[in-house]
Design goal:
2 strands; 110 residues; two-stranded parallel ribbon; mainly alpha; globular; single chain
Length: 110
């Protein structure tokens, strides 16, 4: 596994990927649980920072912190139902998608 990581380091470089999408102007949503024990909340903040440093429009990155949400926002496999953190993560995602979709709609001037 370590060898695979070394051989594919460029493809797995999260910072490089974030900076590339920021430079292209692609909007980014980061939804992160405050109680995520797999990926610390600080990593979400770091990703937001990389985007803001590289973007021509740093407002195109949104970070939504889900209070008390863990790595899966309380969801389990097999799916046993919605949890409050999962509902919050879903709502943040839906809102972001609607805003981005609305922004990309053609205007009368187009």
């Amino acid at each position: 596994m370590a060898r695979d990581l070394e051989e594919n380091a460029a493809a797995l470089d999260i910072e490089r990927a974030v900076r590339t999408i920021a430079e292209r102007g692609t909007p980014l949503l980061i939804v992160h649980g405050t109680a995520d024990d797999a990926v610390p909340l600080e990593e979400g903040h770091r990703i937001r920072g990389w985007y803001r440093e590289s973007a021509f429009d740093p407002t195109r990155v949104v970070m939504s912190e889900v209070e008390g949400g863990n790595h899966t926002f309380g969801a389990v496999h097999p799916f046993a139902g919605w949890t409050p953190p999962l509902e919050e993560a879903y709502a943040a995602t839906e809102k972001f998608v609607r805003i981005v979709a609305r922004a990309s709609e053609p205007t009368e001037e187009s």
